[in-house]
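Sample entry (308 residues):
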Amino acid sequence: MSKKAYFYIDDTIWALRDITRLRPQSMFDTPFFNMLKTAHEKYGTKVQLNLFYKTSYFYGNDDFCLADVTDAYKSEWEANSDWLKMAFHAKEEFPDYPHINTKYEDMKSQFKAVENEVIRFAGEKSLTYAICPHWNAVSKEGVRALHDCGVKLLVATRGYTFEFEEYQNLVSPGIHGRIFFNRQPETRLRSDSPTPEKPYLSLCAYNHVSLEQYDKIHGTLDYLKDEETGMCFKSYASLCLNRLLFENVEKVINNSLGNEFIGVGNHEQYFYSDYFNYQPDYAEKIYKMSEILSQNGYEFLFIEDLVK
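Predicted structure, serialized as tokens:
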């Protein structure tokens, strides 16, 4: 059995700000990119960075966007594009669920803004067209727009679904309330429980698949083709590193070692010491994950390569 692993880091923007402002001799002289290169050289890790277009006001008045990123390292990006690529994630970190009710033109313009800048500062070879959008949920119009922009694969969510009206008393106000007010027909609540008396309810949209469909493709190299939009859907991650204590990384990965496909996610901000949820063992968790998968015969890939 051919065994494959996929590793991606969501919410990426600060690392690009670092290389732009610090201007090191090599982009891999910065701690974040040095960590990724170390994982690649030791264990063959391939990394997909899912990009915000701009920084968020929530972290202070220090505006930075992809249009500011230096192109001084374009040749380095291109030379390392066999193991390091970038993809669209969202315009910025807030609000939550930014694409759940998005219109076609809004989705297209946001995607193109990221695509154009990556091509400018890193070259076309540094782009990948497998997308894990911020908070996952994408409207039907948004899915159509992404497909028309060349996206090959979109993350799929799973779980039991409910109408908002069924659990209005459990839906928090604020952003969830605004989503409810403006929602598209495919917008739903989802939960891991079929009867969520005290659930953690999250939101889903058109890229949500049934439990039966999800179980057929999870842990495999297979994906689903949505004939109506042309988009392919797949479950991306078996685990998310920033949600695990270091001592639990090996145990959680071991639970999936029988699968032909293991996806691993992470988030950029936990690497940085001035982030309120800073994880000083961020790099060690990446190395440990990479080591375990490599030693167990998994080859890292970019997930878009699965689409035929």
